[in-house]
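Project outcomes to date are best conveyed with an example. Our students and postdoctoral researchers have been running inverse folding experiments weekly, and each run begins with a structure described purely in C-alpha coordinates. The record below, which covers 139 residues, was selected by the lab manager from last quarter's runs and is presented without edits.
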Protein backbone atom coordinates (compact mmCIF):
# COMPACT_ATOMS: atom_id res chain seq x y z
CA UNK A 1 0.00 0.00 0.00
CA UNK A 2 1.21 3.32 -0.96
CA UNK A 3 0.13 6.21 1.09
CA UNK A 4 0.23 9.55 -0.50
CA UNK A 5 1.84 12.33 1.26
CA UNK A 6 -0.78 14.82 2.35
CA UNK A 7 -0.63 18.29 1.04
CA UNK A 8 -1.11 21.05 3.56
CA UNK A 9 -4.72 22.19 3.52
CA UNK A 10 -5.42 25.67 2.35
CA UNK A 11 -7.52 27.64 4.76
CA UNK A 12 -10.68 28.96 3.16
CA UNK A 13 -10.83 32.70 3.12
CA UNK A 14 -13.79 34.99 2.94
CA UNK A 15 -13.40 38.15 0.98
CA UNK A 16 -15.32 40.88 2.82
CA UNK A 17 -14.78 43.64 0.29
CA UNK A 18 -17.65 42.63 -2.05
CA UNK A 19 -19.90 42.12 0.98
CA UNK A 20 -19.12 45.62 2.24
CA UNK A 21 -19.78 47.05 -1.23
CA UNK A 22 -23.19 45.37 -1.42
CA UNK A 23 -24.14 46.52 2.08
CA UNK A 24 -23.10 50.09 1.23
CA UNK A 25 -25.27 50.08 -1.90
CA UNK A 26 -28.24 48.75 0.09
CA UNK A 27 -27.73 51.40 2.78
CA UNK A 28 -27.59 54.19 0.19
CA UNK A 29 -30.76 52.84 -1.47
CA UNK A 30 -32.66 52.72 1.83
CA UNK A 31 -31.53 56.22 2.80
CA UNK A 32 -32.49 57.65 -0.60
CA UNK A 33 -35.96 56.07 -0.72
CA UNK A 34 -37.05 56.61 2.88
CA UNK A 35 -39.54 59.40 3.47
CA UNK A 36 -39.75 61.13 6.79
CA UNK A 37 -43.11 62.40 8.03
CA UNK A 38 -43.63 65.10 10.58
CA UNK A 39 -46.47 64.04 12.85
CA UNK A 40 -46.15 67.09 15.04
CA UNK A 41 -47.79 69.19 12.35
CA UNK A 42 -51.01 67.17 12.09
CA UNK A 43 -54.11 69.32 12.16
CA UNK A 44 -57.31 67.37 12.68
CA UNK A 45 -60.95 68.27 13.19
CA UNK A 46 -63.19 65.71 14.87
CA UNK A 47 -65.91 64.39 14.83
CA UNK A 48 -67.56 64.33 11.40
CA UNK A 49 -68.34 61.42 9.08
CA UNK A 50 -70.14 60.71 5.84
CA UNK A 51 -71.17 57.13 6.61
CA UNK A 52 -74.67 55.88 5.94
CA UNK A 53 -76.89 54.74 8.78
CA UNK A 54 -77.06 51.03 9.50
CA UNK A 55 -80.23 49.28 8.35
CA UNK A 56 -80.77 47.38 11.59
CA UNK A 57 -79.62 48.65 14.95
CA UNK A 58 -79.33 46.35 17.95
CA UNK A 59 -80.42 47.42 21.40
CA UNK A 60 -78.33 50.43 22.27
CA UNK A 61 -77.40 52.38 25.37
CA UNK A 62 -76.97 56.06 24.53
CA UNK A 63 -74.31 57.93 26.52
CA UNK A 64 -73.93 61.65 25.95
CA UNK A 65 -70.88 63.64 27.03
CA UNK A 66 -71.21 67.42 26.95
CA UNK A 67 -68.43 69.89 26.32
CA UNK A 68 -68.25 70.78 30.03
CA UNK A 69 -67.97 67.13 31.15
CA UNK A 70 -71.58 66.30 32.08
CA UNK A 71 -72.87 62.82 31.32
CA UNK A 72 -76.30 61.52 30.45
CA UNK A 73 -77.36 57.90 30.12
CA UNK A 74 -80.34 57.28 27.83
CA UNK A 75 -81.22 61.01 28.03
CA UNK A 76 -81.15 61.11 31.85
CA UNK A 77 -78.54 63.30 33.54
CA UNK A 78 -76.07 61.21 35.50
CA UNK A 79 -73.36 62.00 38.04
CA UNK A 80 -70.79 59.53 39.31
CA UNK A 81 -67.52 59.67 41.17
CA UNK A 82 -65.75 56.65 39.67
CA UNK A 83 -65.93 54.47 36.55
CA UNK A 84 -67.10 51.58 38.76
CA UNK A 85 -70.23 53.53 39.71
CA UNK A 86 -70.85 54.39 36.08
CA UNK A 87 -70.42 50.70 35.17
CA UNK A 88 -73.24 49.82 37.61
CA UNK A 89 -75.48 52.41 35.95
CA UNK A 90 -74.61 50.94 32.54
CA UNK A 91 -75.62 47.47 33.71
CA UNK A 92 -78.94 48.85 34.99
CA UNK A 93 -79.58 50.65 31.69
CA UNK A 94 -78.75 47.53 29.64
CA UNK A 95 -81.27 45.44 31.58
CA UNK A 96 -81.15 41.78 30.61
CA UNK A 97 -79.18 42.34 27.38
CA UNK A 98 -75.80 40.63 27.89
CA UNK A 99 -73.88 42.72 25.35
CA UNK A 100 -75.64 45.90 24.21
CA UNK A 101 -74.21 48.40 21.75
CA UNK A 102 -72.83 51.39 23.67
CA UNK A 103 -73.20 54.56 21.60
CA UNK A 104 -71.06 57.47 22.79
CA UNK A 105 -72.38 60.88 21.73
CA UNK A 106 -69.49 63.11 22.71
CA UNK A 107 -69.36 66.81 21.97
CA UNK A 108 -66.49 67.81 19.70
CA UNK A 109 -65.15 70.02 22.50
CA UNK A 110 -65.49 67.34 25.24
CA UNK A 111 -62.28 66.42 26.98
CA UNK A 112 -60.55 63.21 26.00
CA UNK A 113 -60.63 62.07 29.64
CA UNK A 114 -64.43 62.33 29.71
CA UNK A 115 -64.71 59.92 26.79
CA UNK A 116 -62.08 57.60 28.27
CA UNK A 117 -64.13 57.48 31.51
CA UNK A 118 -67.11 56.18 29.52
CA UNK A 119 -64.96 53.60 27.74
CA UNK A 120 -63.47 52.42 31.03
CA UNK A 121 -66.93 52.08 32.57
CA UNK A 122 -68.08 50.00 29.59
CA UNK A 123 -65.04 47.76 29.98
CA UNK A 124 -65.70 47.30 33.68
CA UNK A 125 -69.34 46.46 32.92
CA UNK A 126 -68.17 43.79 30.46
CA UNK A 127 -69.46 45.46 27.30
CA UNK A 128 -67.19 45.33 24.28
CA UNK A 129 -69.38 46.85 21.56
CA UNK A 130 -68.61 50.57 21.55
CA UNK A 131 -69.31 53.06 18.82
CA UNK A 132 -69.16 56.82 18.46
CA UNK A 133 -71.95 58.92 17.02
CA UNK A 134 -70.95 61.59 14.51
CA UNK A 135 -72.75 64.02 12.31
CA UNK A 136 -72.46 64.34 8.58
CA UNK A 137 -70.87 67.35 6.93
CA UNK A 138 -73.50 69.64 5.48
CA UNK A 139 -72.02 71.19 2.36
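After processing, the design step wrote out the following sequence:
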Amino acid sequence: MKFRQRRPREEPEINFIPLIDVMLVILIFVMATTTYSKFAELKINLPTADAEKAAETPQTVQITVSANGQYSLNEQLLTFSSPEEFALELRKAAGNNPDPMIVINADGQASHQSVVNVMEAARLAGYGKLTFATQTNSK
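Residues 102 and 130 are 5 Å apart (CA to CA). The first helix runs from residue 16 to 33. The training component of this project remains on track.
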